Model the fold of this input.
Amino acid sequence: MQRARAGERIFREVEEFHKYLLDVQDLRTKLGVRIYAWCLLSDQVNLLLDPMGDPQRISEFMKSLSVRTVRRHNRIAKRNGRLWDGRYRSSPVQWGPWSLSSMRYIETLPLSMAGVEHIDHYDWSSHVIRMGFMAGYPLDDHPDYLALHSDETERQKLYRRLLTREMEDAEWCRIHNAIHRSQLTGDDRFIDQVEKATGVRLASRGPGRPKGSLSRTPRRRKARRRR
Done:
């Protein structure tokens, strides 16, 4: 996740959203990064990325994307200045239910942050690509998403069920806080394993795994408006 500094907007016109996604596609190809979910809001961007075994690719991807976006923003505004409120924030995600929960978290952000009544009505989220409403923008299928069903139509139906159920508050908060604090997203066993391997405290403790593979998605929240 990367957010604009106070008072700034990353995207003002449709063309700016489009060009950002073209940059995402270009860097995805050049760096070999997979993109499992994304959501572009006026003042922040949210991406679920897989560096394919090389964590340095995430840094290269985000640095290049940030620089391109700032240059374009300043050129349009005819100025020189900062756009971002700081470095991007990242949270390594445990595969399994937490991958699907992270995808859902990202794709339902427009409900609370963009004033839409239904995520089908928001064009700048990977949800519309995943559901087949639009094409031409980057999106890779996460293995845990593919595991929902072998048939694409049935898989879309099952995933839509995930999006229409509310996520437990504790689960929502764990993902939200992990992103903002650049900590781990996963259950305690996963966190323990990583902390033992690195010798570093990497996460606050919370719930175990999400409740069921078809557990609940984030409700619309007015108080929690940042990811």
About this structure: The chain has nine helices and three strands. Strands lie at 2-3, 34-41, 44-50. The first helix runs from residue 14 to 31.
